[in-house]
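We were asked to recover a plausible sequence for a given structure. The inputs and outputs are reproduced exactly as logged, with field labels preserved.

PROBLEM: sequence recovery
POSITIONS: 298
GIVEN STRUCTURE:
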């Protein structure tokens, strides 16, 4: 059995990260930070997450014609994500995320979208035959057009929380939100969409619903978290891949929670995204469910 094929339509950013003892409050300056740069953006993160976990992945995106683009795409290129659908805009810079991370692993993020905001529906291919993952760091009109072009499974991570048409929710086979996003959209609206609904609960794990009924719950393995920046994106890539592989819902949710936990143990979003072997080793070492091996994978 060949690996699932996933197309991601989403954002690419360069993350500018300052690590500090505690996060500043409003109007406060915190000294003693340590600075680094990492590739990021929810679209790029989720593409790389799915790739490292075993999918064949293509990314549809926009970056600037600048040095930041090379840094932002470096790990995607190294890990074999197809970037033929990721083009450079000449008059808009690559997106940038300003991230502060505390010693406890909590973060604050401000995003300057740059070229992500210039990603228009006309930049999409004529059809998307693979499964599709999308988020809301690109224009809603572009995401909606990508969903309309997709003939396969559609997973939408409704982050950051923004107004979206009901038709977009109704087309999704899988919606993924955290607790604050779930509150923004409303329980009734999300559960009426018709597909699967995954709600992430941070360190408490995640829940999976179908037609308003809870069908699976999972708790992540206990780890020493140092940076939660990419954990949610690891969860999205892992859950989508696991469902495409035909994993039972409880096992798929446990696998996704383990992927998010593994990601939180390393610094940065993309550098910390785990391989499948790392996720499965974590599940075994912490007494989680026996890892699922798709046909053809050992």
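RECOVERED SEQUENCE:
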């Amino acid at each position: 059995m060949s690996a699932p094929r996933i197309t991601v339509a989403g954002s690419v950013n360069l993350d500018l990260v300052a690590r500090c003892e505690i996060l500043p409050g409003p109007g406060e300056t915190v000294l003693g930070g340590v600075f680094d740069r990492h590739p990021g953006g929810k679209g790029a993160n989720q593409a790389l997450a799915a790739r490292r976990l075993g999918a064949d992945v293509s990314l549809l995106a926009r970056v600037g014609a600048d040095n930041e683009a090379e840094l932002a795409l470096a790990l995607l290129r190294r890990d074999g994500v197809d970037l033929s659908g990721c083009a450079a805009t000449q008059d808009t810079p690559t997106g940038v995320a300003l991230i502060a991370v505390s010693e406890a692993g909590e973060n604050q993020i401000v995003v300057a979208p740059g070229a992500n905001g210039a990603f228009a529906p006309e930049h999409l291919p004529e059809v998307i035959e693979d499964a599709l993952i999308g988020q809301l760091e690109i224009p809603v009109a572009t995401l909606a057009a990508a969903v309309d072009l997709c003939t396969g499974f559609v997973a939408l991570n409704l982050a950051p929380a923004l107004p979206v048409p009901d038709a977009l929710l109704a087309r999704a086979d899988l919606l993924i939100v955290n607790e604050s996003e779930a509150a923004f959209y409303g329980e009734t609206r999300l559960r009426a969409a018709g597909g699967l609904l995954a709600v992430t609960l941070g360190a408490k794990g995640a829940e999976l619903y179908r037609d308003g009924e809870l069908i699976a719950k999972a708790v992540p393995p206990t780890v020493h978290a140092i940076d939660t920046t990419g954990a949610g994106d690891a969860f999205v890539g892992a859950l989508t891949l696991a469902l495409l592989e035909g994993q039972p819902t409880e096992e798929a949710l446990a696998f996704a929670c383990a992927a998010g936990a593994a990601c939180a143990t390393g610094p940065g979003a993309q550098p910390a995204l785990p391989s499948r072997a790392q996720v499965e080793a974590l599940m075994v070492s912490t007494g989680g469910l026996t890892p699922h091996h798709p046909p053809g994978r050992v």
